[in-house]
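stage 2 :: seqdesign
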């Protein structure tokens, strides 16, 4: 997509020329900083003076602060390519980014119950939804309308999370957060089906794997039904058993789906294997959640970290590393430093999800070591990609 008025485009600070720039860099920086605060908080340091419930803060900020910032950056950028309508940029993008950033900065000091924090944080996701709707309605590309109600759904979950915090209802908080985790994981499966086989075929010069219609429907319907069921079903033994069955079906379907995507040819392409290994955490996490519902010796919190520290952490890091290169006019070739970041990210996922399961006595060590690995992974990304995301495109084109 070329912008017609190149001179006008060049007057915009590069960071605000497209959504991926400010939200990828801001989200990555924030995730490393938030994880550092969480690590210090676990170690007994008073680094969150305004926060009443540090666990709530950690879960909320890694989902609604970090993960959804990355999703917003990706979708607002991709929408330009999908519709041919110039994406959000310049001062409108700066305003949305500020509405995202201010609650992140204020919450540690003012707390999750502060009215200003809540109001600011409830604004930015609906605004993104409205900005996504405009080009879709203009071009009538209804296939991409999916992202508008999705952002509305995340806006409602965000509001519910604050309601749970204000009312002191931790069970509701946990239900909302796990629903958000499942929804983000489901979004990865949607985007994975769109791009992973294409990325693989293009990078390895192999035939693109065509989807099996019934498998695609089973995979996606089962995981989205799991999202709604987790939010809406009562927590009775029968409902838990039904939900565990649904999660297990989704897990098996996604394992089969992943196995078809020609993963064997990705071993020498880090930008591919990080996506595939990250995706593998999704069916494992779904099975872990099913086991937690059936009281099979694992907590819901621990099970959910297969999806957060594992799937979200790795797939997001892999996607932003690739998309940032492509949309900044650079070859899809990463440095050794980013490969090291990928290894640390995968290690963070394994330590946080698997280590407490096989050795419960090392749970606190797992928390700390996983957080350190996360900080290193996203810190290395910020170090390498700062000049890429804050400078004009390497090929001289707008964007």
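stage 2 :: out
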């Amino acid at each position: 997509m070329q912008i017609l008025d190149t001179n006008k485009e060049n007057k915009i600070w590069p960071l605000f020329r497209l959504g991926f720039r400010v939200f990828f860099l801001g989200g990555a920086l924030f995730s490393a900083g938030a994880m550092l605060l969480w690590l210090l908080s676990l170690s007994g340091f008073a680094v969150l003076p305004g926060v009443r419930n540090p666990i709530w803060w950690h879960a909320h900020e890694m989902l609604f602060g970090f993960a959804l910032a990355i999703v917003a950056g990706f979708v607002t950028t991709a929408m330009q390519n999908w519709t041919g309508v110039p994406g959000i940029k310049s001062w409108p993008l700066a305003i949305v980014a500020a509405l995202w950033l201010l609650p992140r900065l204020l919450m540690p000091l003012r707390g999750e119950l502060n009215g200003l924090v809540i109001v600011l944080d409830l604004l930015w996701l609906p605004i993104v939804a409205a900005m996504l709707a405009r080009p879709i309605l203009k071009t009538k590309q209804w296939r991409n309308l999916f992202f508008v109600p999705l952002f509305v759904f995340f806006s409602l979950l965000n509001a519910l999370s604050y309601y749970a915090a204000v009312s002191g209802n931790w069970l509701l908080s946990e239900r909302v957060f796990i629903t958000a985790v499942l929804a983000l994981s489901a979004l990865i499966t949607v985007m994975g089906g769109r791009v992973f086989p294409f990325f693989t075929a293009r990078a390895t010069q192999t035939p693109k794997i065509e989807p099996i219609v019934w498998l695609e429907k089973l995979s996606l319907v089962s995981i989205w039904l799991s999202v709604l069921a987790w939010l809406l079903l009562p927590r009775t033994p029968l409902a838990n058993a039904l939900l565990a069955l649904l999660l297990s079906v989704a897990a098996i379907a996604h394992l089969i789906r992943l196995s078809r995507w020609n993963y064997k040819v990705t071993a020498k392409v880090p930008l591919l294997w990080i996506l595939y290994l990250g995706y593998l955490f999704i069916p494992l996490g779904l099975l872990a959640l099913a086991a937690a519902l059936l009281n099979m010796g694992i907590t819901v919190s621990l099970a959910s970290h297969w999806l957060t520290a594992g799937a979200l952490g790795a797939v997001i890091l892999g996607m932003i590393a690739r998309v940032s290169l492509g949309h900044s006019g650079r070859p899809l070739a990463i440095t050794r430093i980013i490969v090291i970041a990928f290894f640390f990210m995968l290690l963070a996922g394994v330590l946080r999800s698997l280590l407490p399961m096989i050795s419960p006595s090392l749970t606190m060590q797992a928390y700390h070591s996983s957080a350190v690995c996360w900080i290193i992974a996203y810190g290395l990304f910020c170090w390498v990609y700062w000049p890429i995301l804050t400078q004009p495109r390497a090929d001289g084109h707008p964007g």
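stage 3 :: structure notes
- The mean pLDDT is 94.
- Residues 10 and 398 are 7 Å apart (CA to CA).
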